[in-house]
């Protein structure tokens, strides 16, 4: 096995840097290789150290003071970001990052680095830390599903670390590449939306759409700018939020998803797993349906009021306000349900839910006998092209998830590592396919 370190990352980073999320996206140029090498090496070695026995997290941004000020926006209109420049640039070093990291919240604050004049010599420019940039909490809240909109991080190269030796490279909140355990990994959010995992979960997504249409007594969900498949997207978004909150706990865990026809005392399930805390918590699905129904009614009334040529009747206005308030209450209850289910991952063992988000139990121990000998690592979301690896290459948590999926083909397993990475596993025919990095949230850390 060959390992990738900062020197080898440069070529990989340049390969993915110019990929656009949309055709009109403006992409800033990467720095030249010598500066990029220094930037990555300092970030890598800083990630390996601790501050007074504490693990540190940080985000470095390669951005000039002028660009940072421009992206922040005019103060009189309310800035998107808040640059905080130092009176004198600081040394760009491992030591300085260790000093600054404990004083910054890495989810909101960037440590800004740029080549600057050194020692009064014209043309002698070296990398320096010129200040910090507060990007606010809106993007993290949006990513976690706590708000309906958010301002993405600045358009520049950002390197993040929350685990020793692991780095994540992003631009405007979109993860481009990760270095984990010496391997370069290209994240794939598409795994949840296309491919074997998406096919397994997609049936429930379609069911959510049907149940919502029945609730609003409509043949189709789409209305105005809202597409017909929005309920399906909403369904996957709930799963993303659940995995996000489990990941944020940084203690690792596993989420097993089975068909909704199963219960905690199902004989087939009991052969595969011993659930320490079995239950049947079944309120999420109804909340999702109600939220979607309220959203459609809210939009329908909004368009009527907006396009109306006469004065808005007071009764319609009160109806619109009531819908808005009720929707906020339901969405808050959905957020509470996400946190509740995610919190159960704090108990040793796996969390088990159905594909209709019914919690069957937690603290689950996989008891299926080990008949599987190898797994197939997927190159992309389809799982068509894979590399075979022996089961013994993985730890207990991974092997348990693999065995469960192997013995129960109608299931999906998500493994959350302590470093914050999320992985997926699914049996497809005679292969157990493993996706090593599902980047489901665009936080970019």
Can you walk me through this structure?
The protein is of the alpha+beta class and 445 residues long. It folds into two domains: 6-186, no CATH class; 190-281 and 333-435, YojJ-like (1. It is built from eleven helices and 19 strands. The chain has a nine-stranded mixed sheet with strand order 12-14-13-11-17-18-19-15-16, with helices on both faces. The chain has an eight-stranded mixed sheet with strand order 4-6-5-3-7-8-9-10. A two-stranded antiparallel ribbon has the order 1-2. Helix 2 (33-47) packs across helix 4 (94-100). The chain starts with 5 loop residues before the first helix and ends in a 10-residue tail after the last strand.
Strand-helix topology:
Blueprint: H1 6-17, H2 33-47, E1 50-51, E2 54-55, E3 58-62, H3 65-72, E4 82-91, H4 94-100, E5 109-118, E6 121-134, H5 138-143, E7 157-163, E8 166-171, E9 174-180, E10 183-185, H6 196-215, H7 230-248, E11 253-258, H8 267-272, E12 273-281, H9 284-307, H10 314-343, E13 350-354, E14 359-366, E15 374-378, E16 386-390, H11 396-407, E17 411-416, E18 422-428, E19 431-435
Parallel strand pairs: 3-5, 11-13, 15-19
Antiparallel strand pairs: 1-2, 3-7, 4-6, 5-6, 7-8, 8-9, 9-10, 11-17, 12-14, 13-14, 15-16, 17-18, 18-19
CATH topology of the largest domain: YojJ-like (1
Structural class: alpha+beta
The CATH architecture category of the largest domain equals: 3-Layer(aba) Sandwich
Enumerate the strands of the largest sheet in spatial order, edge to edge or round the barrel: 12-14-13-11-17-18-19-15-16
